[in-house]
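Record 1 of the preview.
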Amino acid sequence: MHSKREGKHIPVLSFVDNGCGMSHKEIVRMVSFGHEPQKNDANHIGRYGVGFKTRAMRLGRNAFVISQASNSRSLAFLSQAFNEDKNDFEICIVSYARQGK
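->
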């Protein structure tokens, strides 16, 4: 990806799948810090609510999550740069209903 601010190409790590997407509630849960375990299933991914955030912020300073479910689309922005020198950590999430194609 080319950065106009930096004047050079910067590396981007991208994961793409063709799954069923996440609802607004699921996106909020994924980018929120810590939560009660959903299941007692030891094989359930994300049961403690820290994995995505921890790994994403170790790989880079910003993470964008774009998801399209059958009836909604969502974008979440998790950013160390945006939250630098702030007492509260803000996570931007935009979701909207999807109708038609």
